[in-house]
Amino acid sequence: MTVMNLDKLDVWVRAKDFALTVYKEVVPHLPADEKWNLTSQLKRAAQSIPANIAEVHGRFHYLDNVRFCYYARGSLTEVQSHMALAFELGYLPAEIYNRMTIQTESIGKQLNNYIAYLKRSKQGEKEIPSPNTIREAPEPYIFDDH
Predict the structure, then answer these.
(1) Distance between CA 79 and CA 21 in Å, rounded?
(2) What is the pLDDT along the chain (146 residues), one digit of tens a residue?
(3) Cα separations in angstroms, 32 against 27, 28, 35, 38
(4) How many CA atoms, within 13 angstroms, populate the side-chain half-sphere of residue 102?
(5) Calpha distance 127→62 (Å, rounded)
(6) What is d(CA 50, CA 144) in angstroms, rounded to the nearest whole number?
(7) Which residues of 44-78 are buried (b: 16+ CB within 10 A; e: fewer)?
(8) Does the structural domain 3-121 have CATH classification 1.20.1440.60?
Protein backbone atom coordinates (compact mmCIF):
# COMPACT_ATOMS: atom_id res chain seq x y z
CA MET A 1 0.00 0.00 0.00
CA THR A 2 1.47 3.34 -0.99
CA VAL A 3 -1.57 5.61 -1.12
CA MET A 4 -0.33 8.83 0.47
CA ASN A 5 2.31 6.76 2.32
CA LEU A 6 -0.30 5.43 4.74
CA ASP A 7 1.78 2.31 5.28
CA LYS A 8 4.53 4.53 6.73
CA LEU A 9 2.22 5.90 9.45
CA ASP A 10 3.01 3.61 12.38
CA VAL A 11 -0.14 4.37 14.35
CA TRP A 12 -2.28 3.36 11.33
CA VAL A 13 -0.26 0.16 10.78
CA ARG A 14 -0.69 -0.82 14.43
CA ALA A 15 -4.41 0.03 14.40
CA LYS A 16 -4.94 -2.03 11.23
CA ASP A 17 -3.03 -4.97 12.69
CA PHE A 18 -5.08 -4.64 15.88
CA ALA A 19 -8.32 -4.78 13.85
CA LEU A 20 -7.04 -7.90 12.09
CA THR A 21 -6.28 -9.47 15.47
CA VAL A 22 -9.81 -8.67 16.66
CA TYR A 23 -11.20 -10.45 13.60
CA LYS A 24 -8.88 -13.44 13.80
CA GLU A 25 -8.49 -14.00 17.56
CA VAL A 26 -11.43 -12.40 19.36
CA VAL A 27 -14.44 -12.80 17.06
CA PRO A 28 -14.08 -16.61 16.71
CA HIS A 29 -14.65 -16.94 20.47
CA LEU A 30 -18.01 -15.20 20.35
CA PRO A 31 -21.10 -17.41 20.12
CA ALA A 32 -23.19 -17.56 16.95
CA ASP A 33 -26.19 -15.98 18.68
CA GLU A 34 -24.10 -12.80 19.17
CA LYS A 35 -23.48 -12.46 15.41
CA TRP A 36 -25.79 -9.47 14.97
CA ASN A 37 -25.09 -7.91 18.36
CA LEU A 38 -21.74 -8.02 20.11
CA THR A 39 -19.81 -9.49 17.18
CA SER A 40 -21.11 -6.92 14.74
CA GLN A 41 -20.46 -4.01 17.11
CA LEU A 42 -16.96 -5.24 17.90
CA LYS A 43 -16.04 -5.64 14.23
CA ARG A 44 -17.38 -2.20 13.28
CA ALA A 45 -15.53 -0.49 16.13
CA ALA A 46 -12.27 -2.31 15.30
CA GLN A 47 -12.54 -1.33 11.62
CA SER A 48 -13.25 2.26 12.55
CA ILE A 49 -9.91 2.80 14.31
CA PRO A 50 -7.60 2.50 11.27
CA ALA A 51 -10.30 3.93 8.97
CA ASN A 52 -10.46 7.18 10.93
CA ILE A 53 -6.67 7.40 11.13
CA ALA A 54 -6.54 6.89 7.35
CA GLU A 55 -9.08 9.65 6.85
CA VAL A 56 -6.91 11.90 9.04
CA HIS A 57 -3.94 11.18 6.85
CA GLY A 58 -5.85 12.30 3.78
CA ARG A 59 -6.93 15.66 5.21
CA PHE A 60 -4.91 18.84 5.27
CA HIS A 61 -6.01 20.98 8.21
CA TYR A 62 -4.71 19.89 11.61
CA LEU A 63 -8.06 20.52 13.34
CA ASP A 64 -9.75 18.04 11.00
CA ASN A 65 -6.92 15.60 11.64
CA VAL A 66 -7.26 15.92 15.40
CA ARG A 67 -11.04 15.48 15.23
CA PHE A 68 -10.75 12.19 13.31
CA CYS A 69 -8.07 10.97 15.72
CA TYR A 70 -10.57 11.60 18.51
CA TYR A 71 -13.04 9.41 16.62
CA ALA A 72 -10.37 6.69 16.30
CA ARG A 73 -9.64 6.95 20.02
CA GLY A 74 -13.35 6.64 20.78
CA SER A 75 -13.57 3.52 18.63
CA LEU A 76 -10.55 2.05 20.40
CA THR A 77 -12.28 2.59 23.73
CA GLU A 78 -15.46 1.05 22.30
CA VAL A 79 -13.50 -2.08 21.33
CA GLN A 80 -12.12 -2.21 24.87
CA SER A 81 -15.65 -2.04 26.26
CA HIS A 82 -16.96 -4.80 23.97
CA MET A 83 -14.02 -7.05 24.84
CA ALA A 84 -14.55 -6.46 28.57
CA LEU A 85 -18.18 -7.49 28.16
CA ALA A 86 -17.19 -10.57 26.14
CA PHE A 87 -14.67 -11.52 28.81
CA GLU A 88 -17.11 -11.04 31.68
CA LEU A 89 -19.75 -13.08 29.83
CA GLY A 90 -17.22 -15.91 29.64
CA TYR A 91 -16.82 -15.78 25.85
CA LEU A 92 -13.23 -14.57 25.76
CA PRO A 93 -10.33 -16.40 27.46
CA ALA A 94 -8.33 -14.36 29.98
CA GLU A 95 -5.09 -14.77 28.02
CA ILE A 96 -6.57 -13.16 24.90
CA TYR A 97 -8.44 -10.50 26.87
CA ASN A 98 -5.30 -9.49 28.78
CA ARG A 99 -3.14 -9.39 25.64
CA MET A 100 -5.73 -7.34 23.77
CA THR A 101 -6.11 -4.95 26.72
CA ILE A 102 -2.36 -4.31 26.68
CA GLN A 103 -2.55 -3.63 22.94
CA THR A 104 -5.45 -1.18 23.31
CA GLU A 105 -3.58 0.72 26.01
CA SER A 106 -0.42 0.86 23.89
CA ILE A 107 -2.25 1.99 20.75
CA GLY A 108 -4.17 4.53 22.83
CA LYS A 109 -0.91 6.05 24.07
CA GLN A 110 0.49 6.15 20.56
CA LEU A 111 -2.70 7.76 19.27
CA ASN A 112 -2.56 10.37 22.06
CA ASN A 113 1.03 11.13 21.08
CA TYR A 114 -0.01 11.47 17.44
CA ILE A 115 -2.81 13.87 18.45
CA ALA A 116 -0.32 15.93 20.45
CA TYR A 117 2.03 15.99 17.45
CA LEU A 118 -0.78 17.16 15.14
CA LYS A 119 -1.71 19.94 17.54
CA ARG A 120 1.91 21.09 17.87
CA SER A 121 2.68 20.95 14.17
CA LYS A 122 -0.50 22.77 13.07
CA GLN A 123 -0.03 21.31 9.59
CA GLY A 124 -2.33 22.90 7.04
CA GLU A 125 -2.99 25.83 9.36
CA LYS A 126 -3.60 28.08 6.36
CA GLU A 127 -6.13 25.65 4.84
CA ILE A 128 -9.82 26.11 5.52
CA PRO A 129 -10.88 23.60 8.19
CA SER A 130 -14.18 21.81 8.38
CA PRO A 131 -16.92 23.95 9.94
CA ASN A 132 -17.03 21.46 12.83
CA THR A 133 -15.13 22.57 15.89
CA ILE A 134 -13.04 20.86 18.53
CA ARG A 135 -13.68 21.63 22.16
CA GLU A 136 -10.53 21.23 24.23
CA ALA A 137 -12.03 21.61 27.71
CA PRO A 138 -14.34 18.72 28.62
CA GLU A 139 -17.79 19.45 29.91
CA PRO A 140 -18.37 18.55 33.56
CA TYR A 141 -20.08 15.25 34.17
CA ILE A 142 -23.06 15.76 36.41
CA PHE A 143 -24.91 12.85 37.96
CA ASP A 144 -28.23 13.56 39.56
CA ASP A 145 -29.97 10.50 40.98
CA HIS A 146 -33.15 12.34 42.01
Answers:
(1) 12
(2) 445 688 888 999 999 999 999 999 999 999 999 888 999 999 999 999 999 999 877 766 667 788 889 999 999 999 999 999 999 999 999 999 999 999 999 999 999 999 888 888 876 666 655 555 555 555 565 666 65
(3) 10, 9, 5, 10
(4) 5
(5) 9
(6) 37
(7) ebbbbbbbbbbbbbebebbbbbbbbbebbbebbeb
(8) yes
Q: How many residues does the chain have?
A: 146
* Domain locations along the chain: 3-121
pTM above 0.85, yes or no: no
- Amino acid 43 reads K
Burial class (CB in 10 A: 0-12, 13-18, 19+), 100: buried
